[in-house]
TrEMBL record, chain A:
<dbReference type="InterPro" id="IPR000182">
    <property type="entry name" value="GNAT_dom"/>
</dbReference>
<dbReference type="GO" id="GO:0008080">
    <property type="term" value="F:N-acetyltransferase activity"/>
</dbReference>
<keyword id="KW-0808">Transferase</keyword>
<dbReference type="InterPro" id="IPR051016">
    <property type="entry name" value="Diverse_Substrate_AcTransf"/>
</dbReference>
<dbReference type="Pfam" id="PF00583">
    <property type="entry name" value="Acetyltransf_1"/>
</dbReference>
<keyword id="KW-0012">Acyltransferase</keyword>
<protein>
    <recommendedName>
        <fullName>N-acetyltransferase domain-containing protein</fullName>
    </recommendedName>
</protein>
<dbReference type="InterPro" id="IPR016181">
    <property type="entry name" value="Acyl_CoA_acyltransferase"/>
</dbReference>
<feature type="domain" description="N-acetyltransferase">
    <location>
        <begin position="1"/>
        <end position="155"/>
    </location>
</feature>
Automatic annotation (TrEMBL), chain B:
<keyword id="KW-0012">Acyltransferase</keyword>
<dbReference type="InterPro" id="IPR051016">
    <property type="entry name" value="Diverse_Substrate_AcTransf"/>
</dbReference>
<comment type="similarity">
    <text>Belongs to the acetyltransferase family.</text>
</comment>
<dbReference type="InterPro" id="IPR016181">
    <property type="entry name" value="Acyl_CoA_acyltransferase"/>
</dbReference>
<keyword id="KW-0808">Transferase</keyword>
<dbReference type="Pfam" id="PF00583">
    <property type="entry name" value="Acetyltransf_1"/>
</dbReference>
<dbReference type="InterPro" id="IPR000182">
    <property type="entry name" value="GNAT_dom"/>
</dbReference>
<protein>
    <recommendedName>
        <fullName>N-acetyltransferase domain-containing protein</fullName>
    </recommendedName>
</protein>
<feature type="domain" description="N-acetyltransferase">
    <location>
        <begin position="3"/>
        <end position="165"/>
    </location>
</feature>
Length: 155, 252
């Protein structure tokens, strides 16, 4: 489903990890993420025979202004199962899990052209901090990350 | 200038809180800061910390005019990309103004990158305000990518605040009714699942009768605005014991 989501976001070439990394990183002693799965009963399985039809992948972060935060990295429902409240159910469950951990915010990123997703999140009360406050996401990876590491001071 | 970078410990939280405030003033959002020194101590230095920190210290002879030797920090945590795997997110990077231009900021960021890579991370991510040209220039000079400008990612947030819940049991025996106009007795069984840093709300007081009942116990009324609101409420109370669930503004 991660691959299906990447195809939808027109960046399928960006996916570099496999189920092996997910198994290692999500189910170790100090997991890097948690995940919720949406399942349907066997009689409602997809055309290809899947009963796991959606997921939400999230982890805990921190805001030095507001405190504990939960970050929704992925929210995905297979196309044939959309429009039935599954996406909303997944997102609300993540929010509930977050509040049980005393998180005060749920954050995520959405692509500017993804109007259905933007409308969905706006309807849930999400605020677009890029539009309203000018926040930009910055990334170092690959060679730029390697160069940065080389300049780290010695211990 | 001689400086050292080391992992932050719980005793650094006072200086980290100070510098968080300075950074928020620089970013023109000082009223957004709700996290306290105590929050940092609990959230960063417990069994499953929400963040990690590194601190910059200068020798005593270079301390600030206020006497501070802790002059910069970076706060980070591990995150995950479902495409790239383990990642590190740098929440804050700050150097006090009089110590800038000496390579301290770059050293801090590089150290976060190094710690991330040692943990198997493939990306270092963070956010920056679009008007913060000096920071943007610094980051671009180090070879970063602006995924908002180049790929169209927008940063979204939803508040998860919950109203403060106060259960009030008001026992009004016959002889007490005559005292309603001048005062009241309230036995509070105070329960709340609010965070340690409640946000201010201005929602009106909502009262919903739950069940008839008797007093649960006594709790100390510490907050004057709760008392004030109770005084407003007592005029509307029926003359029988009631257990009330009230959603109160967080400033109550």
């Amino acid at each position: 489903m991660i691959t299906e989501l990447a195809v939808f976001e027109k960046m399928s070439d960006q996916v570099k990890i496999s189920h092996e990394e997910l198994e290692r990183d999500g189910f170790c002693q100090n997991p890097f993420f948690e995940c919720l799965i949406a399942e349907v009963s066997d009689e409602h399985r997809s055309k290809c025979g899947y009963t796991v039809v959606g997921y939400a992948l999230y982890f805990y972060t921190y805001s030095t202004w507001k405190g504990r935060t939960v970050y929704l990295e992925d929210l995905y429902v297979m196309p044939e199962f959309r429009g039935r409240g599954i996406g909303k159910g997944l997102m609300c469950k993540v929010a509930k899990v977050g509040t049980e951990k005393k998180c005060v915010r749920l954050q995520l990123a959405v692509l500017d052209w993804n109007s259905p997703a933007r409308d969905f999140y706006a309807a849930k009360g999400a605020q677009d901090l890029t539009d309203s406050e000018g926040w930009h996401f910055i990334r170092f990876d690959g060679p730029s990350l390697d160069n940065l590491v080389k300049e780290a001071p010695k211990d | 200038m001689d400086f050292t970078i080391r992992a932050a410990n719980v005793d650094d939280c006072k200086d980290i809180a100070r510098m968080i405030t300075e950074l928020a003033e620089y970013e023109k959002v000082i009223d957004h800061v709700k996290v306290t020194q105590r929050d940092l101590e609990q959230d960063g230095f417990s069994k499953n910390p929400f963040f990690h920190g590194i601190i910059v210290e200068v020798p005593e002879q270079h301390k600030t005019k206020e006497g501070h030797t802790k002059v910069g920090y970076a706060l980070y945590f591990f995150s995950y990309s479902s495409w790239k795997g383990r990642s590190v997110f740098m929440e804050d990077l700050y150097v006090m103004p009089e110590f800038r231009g000496k390579g301290i900021g770059k050293a801090l960021m590089s150290k976060v990158a190094q710690l991330g890579m040692a943990a198997g991370c493939q990306q270092l991510n963070f956010t920056v305000l679009d008007w913060n040209k000096s920071s943007l220039d610094f980051y671009f000079s180090q070879g970063c990518t602006d995924t908002t400008a180049e790929m169209g990612y927008h940063y979204m947030t939803c508040a998860l605040s919950r109203p403060l819940q106060v259960r009030v049991c008001v026992a009004m025996e016959q002889r007490e009714q005559s005292r309603l106009s001048s005062g009241f007795h309230a036995h509070l069984d105070f329960y709340s699942s609010c965070t340690r840093s409640p946000q201010h709300h201005t929602s009106p007081l909502q009262v919903r009768a739950v069940t008839p009942g008797c007093c649960k116990g006594r709790a100390e009324l510490r907050r004057l605005s709760v008392r004030t609101r109770m005084q407003q409420l007592h005029r509307a109370l029926p003359a029988r014991p009631l257990l009330l669930d009230m959603a109160l503004p967080r400033t109550a």
